[in-house]
Amino acid sequence: MAAIPVYRWRFAPDGLATRRQLRALGLRPGGQDVAAQVERPRRRRGPLVAYLYSIEQAKPVRPMTPAKRAALAKANAARRTCPECRRDAGYVIPPSLGMCTPCAFPDEQLAA
């Protein structure tokens, strides 16, 4: 098994990009193997690692289909719906609360 090249932060050669950089270009890795990795050193922990892919081998992003768009809208609506009062909160319900703010803090509503 051959090891992949490791580059220091900001020293990767041209022609390689991270997933986010590919996405910004309208591309995706498309099943290709990782070409290299970049390591960013940190003081008290291990380095941050980002995997790099060849831009030449990348494929265009698949277009959003109506079924995918509907599924995404349904999933986002579920994240906004309070399980206590069943209303759309208008924002994504924080997992730490597990419910909308008025349901989590009913006493503060009276004080306002």
Strand element count: 6
Which class do the helix and strand fractions yield?
alpha+beta
Which strand order do you get reading across the main beta sheet?
1-4-5-2
- State the helicity in percent bands: 25-40%
Shape: flat
> What is the radius of gyration computed over CA atoms, rounded to a whole number of angstroms?
22 Å
Low-confidence stretches: none
Order of SSEs, N→C?
EEHEEEEHHH
Mean pLDDT: 92
Number of helices: 4
How far is the N terminus from the C terminus?
Answer: 65 Å
Q: Sheet bearing the most strands, described? A: 4 strands, mixed
Beta-strand percentage range: 15-25%
What report would you give on this structure?
The strands form two sheets. Strands 1-4-5-2 form a four-stranded mixed beta sheet. It has a two-stranded antiparallel ribbon with strand order 3-6. A hairpin with a 7-residue loop joins strand 4 and strand 5. The chain is α+β, with helices and mostly antiparallel strands and 112 residues long. It is built from four helices and six strands, in the order ββαββββααα. The longest helix has 15 residues, at 66-80.
